[in-house]
Model the fold of this input.
Amino acid sequence: MNDIFQKEKMRYCPGCGHTTINYLLAKVIKEMGIEDNVVTIAPAGCGAYIGEIMRTASIFAPHGRGVSVAAGLKRADPQAIVIAYQGDGDFTGIGLADSLHGIRRNENITVLHVNNNCYGMTGGQVAPTSTQGYVSPTTKSGSPYTPIDMCDITSRINSQSFVYRGTLKKHQRQELLNALRKSLVRQQNNEGFSLVEILSPCPTGWEGKEQLEEMISLFRTGTILDGTCPTIATPPKKYSQSDILTDIEIEFNQKRNDARKEDFNLGIIVSGRGGQGIQTLGKMIANTYHEKGFNVSVLPSYGAEKRGGISLCEVSISSEPINCPKVEHPDILVLMQKDSLYLERTVIPGGTVYFDSATHTPKRKDIVPVNVLPIICTNDNPFAELLKLITSQPPTPPI
Amino acid sequence: MRSAKLLSGNQAAVYAAVLSGCRHFYGYPITPVNTLLETAADLFSKYQLHFLQAESEIIAINMVMGASAAGQRVLTATSGPGLSLMQEGLSYMKASDLPAVIINVMRGGPGLGNIYPSQADYNLMTKANGHGDGKCIVLAPNSPQEMFDLTREAFLLADKYRHPVIVGVDGAIAQSIEEVCINQSLILEPLPKKPWAIRGDGSKNNITSVRDPPVLEEILIKHRQMYDEISIKEQRFETFSVDNAKYVFVAYGIISRIVMNYILHNPSQKYGLIRPITLWPFPEDIISELANEESLRAFVSVEVSLDQMHNDLARIVQGHKPMHTINRLGGNLPSIAYIDEQMHMLLSSHGE
Done:
């Protein structure tokens, strides 16, 4: 066992459950012959040293994030047998969201949850798993809250998972070893999420041995859920890097004409309310000119509302490279709501404002007003008509 | 016929990632980066790559860490509030020498702020990229084409130095749509081998950030040497018209384009522009050089943040030249008229 289990690296307190758990885990790994494939994910807390103690690949994850790091790692290297070794503070406290969502997603990993009812390393403080009344440095009058039962929760949010809770009592030893083995075999067979929780003593953190008995009386032990996972379908075609490049190059090779040689500059602002199609129209204008061979630049801006609020789309068109996507003085202003009226004064003298007469009327005398309400009301596809109208308009002649 | 595609900055970054052999995207929706996520969802699933919309930015950055530890190129993208949540993950990745690319599209802040563009995460990206000692390279695109190019660069730099690299851009450039071309020479470079990676293949590597003082000091000394090397080799910037300039603007992102427009509108004035392309390492050398130029009257930093870049500039200039700032804040962008107004006051303070 010495080739996998470096006893001399252990820093645990006498009587700590981690000592036995590390040994049992090493035993199962050795028996299964998977020490080359195992990756342990070490937690913050006393379990942090698992990476030093077990001679397998390992990574130290931020506090509570074992399941998330495991999920990323497993997706990157499916052949690895990923074991997130976590204390109860890690798995059920700070990492609760990480844990629950990883469980819910049925990540193909194994979590070994070492539950000692407290935050051992920092002095035995109360944890989300602490039994009610647990006295600790931060709950001197006893914890008032009900403890969290992660085995129960896991079984409820993931019916395909394997969930086992055990103790280090000798008469349950074989059952625990079987559960550990099963959780790792499941991972080998891509059968989804497995949780093995062990109620573990913390002689330094606890007041007395009776804490363990209290935990055992409160939390169900044994197999909580032995779910089955449907076979994952074989993924379809795999793309190589050069496949991807070829494919994307085709996407980028759009047919375009050569840009006109003469000086051509046009600034357009499309404005209105969210949901009217302001951004869509702006992009359509840009696409039209891009296909003709011009340089274009589109600058969207909009409020948080999905409908209503302000929506603004600045479109620059030029035969030259465009310095700045902001259009401060447009040749063309499309004004589809009253709240955008303030933009009217930005239009170049001699420019055009396309407006919606149902909401407002332009005030300036030195710009050309075009009412688009008839177009919108009489067309099946008002965008196509508006687009034709706007993109057939030349730049404003200088005064 | 030109081979190019109209893309937003957000979209361009995803194409660059996929073409750089990035196989993992883990992110969380936040305006103004949602289209990046959606493009990633489409493109990554099209090419059988790994995409997950994680349930929080914390989960996202930790999945990034896991995939990176296994030797894969991995991308995430967020905005200020999300980057705040990713701080711990960034710290762990620096400590564990893990590469990753993090795109941060800046919006009005602090707090929830608003979804309009800003540069208010400058300090968060260049200085506060996780607790403890360490730095991240920060690249600053100013166009969709640069979002493509610099995202590609980010993967190369992340792997070269085994550190997370941040691509920091304002919401305006990220959402702006312009032509993007694929630079052929960038692509089809073989992915680097990563013998240090955690894999289930018998290599039995260990990645940790738990270190006793003697070991941690050794590692930090190594990191310092690396940061010194980066500071010398990786400063990137662009200059415009700085020779014999009387006033040199310093601006990046959308602001650099607005300022460029302003300079071109005022051809008789002797204005120049330095555009940092790396925010860390900040282009100190060119700034120090210009600070010694007789003809230069002052530096003018233009940013949409509370003097964050300006403070870096001031540290470099060390009082050798007068310094001015022109700011808009809170999601607002400066207009040409606003810059003009500020410059009038500035010029009169210099007796012009």
